[in-house]
Amino acid sequence: MPRAGITRYAGTRSVATTEVLHEDRIKMNTMSCRFCGSTSLHSFIDLGMSPLCESYISAEGLNSMERFYPLHAYVCEHCFLVQLDTYVGGEDIFTEYAYFSSYADSWVEHARRYTEMITERLQLQRDSQVVEIASNDGYLLQHFVKRGIPVLGVEPAANVAHEAIQKGIPTVVKFFGEQTARALLAQTKHADLIIGNNVLAHVPDLNDLVQGMKILLNPHGVITMEFPHLMRLMAENQFDTIYHEHFSYFSFLTVQRVFATHDLVLFDVEELPTHGGSLRIYARHQDDASKPVSHRVLELRDREKAAGFTQLAYYRSFEEQVKATKRKLLSFLIQAKQQGKTVVGYGAPGKGNTLLNYCGIRTDFLAYTVDRNPYKHGKFLPGTHIPIFHPDYIKQTCPDYVLILPWNVKKEIMAQMACIREWGGQFVVPIPEVKVYP
Ligand SMILES: [Zn+2]
User: Fold this and answer.
1) CB–CB of 118/140 below 8 Å?
2) Is the pLDDT of residue 326 over 60?
């Protein structure tokens, strides 16, 4: 098909035109696939221009210029990796990170249960070695330390790594990859267990990360990684989990392909409710025959194939679904404001910033938001400049609606903030589509 220029079609609205525009986007896009290097990338979802979602603004910064970057995800025609371009390097994003894992109770509990399970399953002992990549403030490794199992955390953000060290959790402040893996081996032994939770999506150089783990893993060791499952993201409309810090979005089929390229086999998988639906994969060396591939691996592969994850058309259907969700949320907010109601937010997570910037929701709709993390108090959300207060501020102002931005922990928040019902306040959850909880 000849590829006509966009200008020639400006103002026309046929289906064929949309196709041509998509084709042209491929042409204009200069990125290549983060995993396989292909340049055949197709538009998955265009969320417009957005600031980095963790770049909270201080009061003095409100009058300064803010950087916005395109938030446009593409899907690779060859390996089906959904990805964003790397507009900013990991150094800019992660050297001072505002996210302290320990502020989310349910996440700390999730980590504790994982530690119990994996210690039993792998028979970890006092002479084992556990390494966690992106170990944050030690929320997970602390549970191994309590059991006397040796650990090492690798964390690029100095401020959160410092918290871990203060808790007595050995942590090196570094980005993890092939080079770091080799450097660690000069000081410590191969790992029996390598953990990487919500790290696979966050690294610009995917192959370097996986190769680093391959090098550090002992011959019978196991890697477990958790990451949001693209299947759930698409089925449940979780477009707000797309932000610049998340470079990649994985189906099981694609992640299996990535690991296989580095001679690592996924021998088991679990589907978890965390972050709106995550996968926990279990990987081993290809030649480690002691761990057979479970039926869960085969079953999930079949399910993804049946859902359409090996067909480009399925990925291309996502954008219209997202636009419909935006319209529903805005309709709710417009109606609430026309009725003179007050609406505030709960939480200041990264995903909230994607949602608010994409939908154009500022203090005209959302008077303020609150967060338990004191690091964010007195600051403002990037782009939308919505102020962030301590959760007690809700009790002082008695709003009609509280919009829960971290919808993945909505139950926990509704329980913590049950007091809003005393004045007739109601919770609102925006995803998968706007819903009021009376
Ligand atoms: Zn690819």
Assistant:
1) no
2) yes
Q: From ligand 1's centre to the CA of 20, what distance in Å? A: 22
Ligand 1 centroid from CA 79, angstroms: 4
How far is the C-alpha of 145 from the C-alpha of 435, rounded, in Å?
Answer: 42
**Ligand 1 centroid – CA 230 distance (Å):** 15
* DSSP characters over 235-252: HTT-GGG--TT--EEB-H
Predicted pLDDT of residue 28: 46
Amino acid identity for residue 336 in this structure: A
Segment 99-123, tens digit of pLDDT:
556 656 777 888 999 999 999 999 9
CA of 81 to the centre of ligand 1 (A): 6
CA of 78 to the centre of ligand 1 (A): 5
Do residues 217 and 66 touch, judged by C-beta distance below 8 A?
A: no
Judge whether residue 415 has pLDDT over 70. Answer: yes
**What's the 40 CA to ligand 1 centre distance in angstroms?**
8
Question: Residue 79: how many CA atoms within 13 Å on its side-chain side?
Answer: 23
Q: Which two three-digit tokens encode residue 300? A: 């999930």
Q: What is the value of pTM for the model shown? A: 0.86
Question: Ligand 1 centre from 366 Cα, in Å?
Answer: 39
